[in-house]
Amino acid sequence: MDEVVEALAISEGETHVDGTFGAGGYTRAMLRAGAGRVIAFDQDPDAIANGPLLVPDPRLTLVHDRFSRMAEALEERDLLPVDGVTLDIGVSSMQLDQAERGFSFREDGPLDMRMSQDGPSAADFLNTADEAEIARVIRDYGDEPKARGLARAIVAARPLTRTGELSAICRKVLGWHAGMKTDPATRTFQAIRIRVNAELAELEAGLEAAERALRPGGRLAVVTFHSLEDRIVKQFLRTRSGAAPAGSRHRPMLDNGPAPTFRAVAKPVAASEAELAINPRARSARLRSAVRTDAPYSPRKAA
Record's InterPro entries (predicted)? Predict the structure, then answer.
């Protein structure tokens, strides 16, 4: 939290976007730092419904939408450009702590995992996808070396309806005993959650939306929790700041494309030991931040 607020460098009266409202932690910090207005996005209807109770402040505007649509939503409200955008990627503590949402492998609940509470659930995916697709998702999004064995066991146990059933399969296939530092179900739950919510595509679109929404000199702060997310943010800022490789010196110079839209790209920041002592979930968090240039927004894909 402290590192994010520092990266945002909030001045009195500025307008900031909290793209992942959750339980309102970043929004409260922005308002305490002097923001004149915070527009907070969340695709979870529970987060929006609870927002006025969590952060009762007239400077807060809550928007029930994906952060990938922030530019359009802000434009519709005549709020472009903004001074800062913050994204905290992945599942929120509020969602994780509610067993009925189906995100936790520690507590039994419906096999759901939908952040928006809409569309196909984790159970829908696991009970209809073929074995090869389930294995691909667990391998690619969870970096699980035994993905094929897990997929085979999941298909054999169908239909699955509870998180406890999926956790038990993971622990049986991968091996589990009391006192293990990391639950063997961790990577599989992460992978399926990412697939159900299309989280990586949402992050890519959200970064471009932030690029479009920020004013010259505006600040972007993004917190990620695993290497897939961090790699996307790193590559985005590398490309948008003009730091991508220029090509071989033995070949003719290539058109470098649009002017850099970000500068002052900071080195990644990890959670401090003091924070980890009170917030163990931050152990894998990485913060990357940058400052918007005055170059016009131009749609393009990261290299």
Answer: RsmH, SAM-dep_MeTrfase_MraW_recog, SAM-dependent_MTases_sf
Cis peptide before 216 (omega within 30 of 0): no
Show which of 197, 212, 231 is a domain's final residue.
197
Residue 233: give the domain boundaries. Answer: 1-94+199-292
* Domain match, 208 and 162 both: no
- Give the CA-trace dihedral at 222, 225, 226, 228, to 10 degrees: -30
Ranges of H-type helices in the chain: 2-8, 25-32, 45-54, 70-76, 93-96, 122-128, 131-142, 147-157, 163-174, 186-197, 199-213, 227-240, 273-278
Say how many domains are in the chain. 2
CATH code of residue 222: 3.40.50.150
CATH no. for residue 144?
Answer: 1.10.150.170
Q: Which residues are annotated as a binding site?
A: 24-26, 42, 67, 88, 95
- Compute the residue count for the chain: 303
Tokens of 91: 């599942």
- Sign of the Cα torsion 103, 107, 112, 115 reads negative
Pair 202, 65: CB distance under 8 Å: no
Q: Tens digits of per-residue pLDDT, 18-37?
A: 999 999 999 999 999 999 99
Domain assignment present for residue 300? The answer is: no
Are 208 and 220 a contacting pair, CB within 8 Å? no
Label each residue of 12-48 as H, E or C: CCCEEEECCCCCCHHHHHHHHCCCCEEEEEECCHHHH
93 vs 21: CA distance, rounded Å:
11
Last residue in a domain, options 197, 216, 243: 197
Instruction: Cite the annotated binding site for S-adenosyl-L-methionine by residue number.
Output: 24-26, 42, 67, 88, 95
Q: Are 89 and 115 found together in one domain?
A: no
Listed in sequence order, the residues at least 6 apart from 51 whose beta carbon sits closer than 8 Å to its beta carbon are 21, 24, 40, 42, 60, 62
